[in-house]
Amino acid sequence: MKKVLVFLAAFTAFSGLVQAQSNANVKLLSTQELINVCKLPASPESRSFCIGYSTAIYDTYLATRHPQRAQPFICLKQPAPSRDEVIADFVKFGQEHQQTADKPAAGVFLGFLAARFPCAKK
Fold it and tell me: CB within 8 A of 8, min separation 6: which ones?
């Protein structure tokens, strides 16, 4: 859990730096906003957004992590749980960790995945 909090802090600091350096005022989706969209029962639009957004976060992690330079911190075992199960667990996680409500959703979701699907210690 300590690694997750360190990751969240680093990601939040990086997100703030990127936003501060940008000339455009880009509003990041907060954790609370993502939780509100992902809560069940969701409309078809909300469900589609939630699945698309959360899948994109994980896919970006997979695509940008260089396996020779960065050890994985999210390790899904097969058979993997359903998307709905993971999203429901994230909603519960977010509700239990209110201190993350105003943080960028992408960083908190990655931290949640790292806590939920940790890699084995070598």
Answer: 100, 103, 107, 108, 111
